[in-house]
User: What shape does this take?
Amino acid sequence: MQRQPATKVSQQKADIFAGLQADILRLQGFKTVQNTVLDSGLGPLKYAFPNATFPLGAMHEFVSAKPEETAATLGFLSGLLNILMGSNGAVLWISPSRMLFPPALKSFGLNPDRFIFIDVQKEKDALWVLDEALKCSALTAVVGELPNMSFTHSRRLQLAVEESQVTGFLLRNQPRAIGTTACISRWYISPLPSTNEDDNLPGIGFPKWHVHLQRIRNGKPGAWDIQWKDGRFAPVYQPVFTIQQTQQQAG
Assistant: This one.
């Protein structure tokens, strides 16, 4: 009896496992909404998501403890929205104390006129507007800057996006307590020094972040050093120094 090559057997096993995983996700109610442009622009991040597909029609939570982390989160989210919106999308941005400077969106290839900004005075008003906006299927995404969120409120938001298939982003800047929410993912974004690739000058190169995906439903949490380069996310590769180069730098 002729034995099959090991590579072919391994591929067959991989196909079986992939099929079983897809069946389990379907039984759990996970809906795969394909966005090939978005998935191809995520770089190494895409493999953390179920079926290597960014979950659309869901709530994603970003937590920031410091102002510099908030700024990094806004940059990372802008890159994500660039890929998600494409050429026709529109985003509603709700905040009781907006941290975003709209002209900065152009740094990530976004036109501010494709954003609708709603500034309210109280968090409870922002929550009501967010709840209503997530029901509007004409929007590509809705961003809400709300530091404090109960599980009950987050569950209501998640049910709204499951119905409308709008993708929601919850920005929790310096919350009183983290707690538990019904959002399908939780992210922590922190800044990394930006360097110029030609002359190694700091602060004028591509935006870089340390991205920590703490929780993702049906996926694989992880952490990556990511940069925004040529309109997409790309890994940050650490330079490899030889012993001779290290000695020269030390001298």
Q: What stands out?
A: Residues 33-237 form a domain with the Rossmann fold fold (CATH 3.40.50.300). Residues 240-247 have pLDDT under 50 and may be disordered.
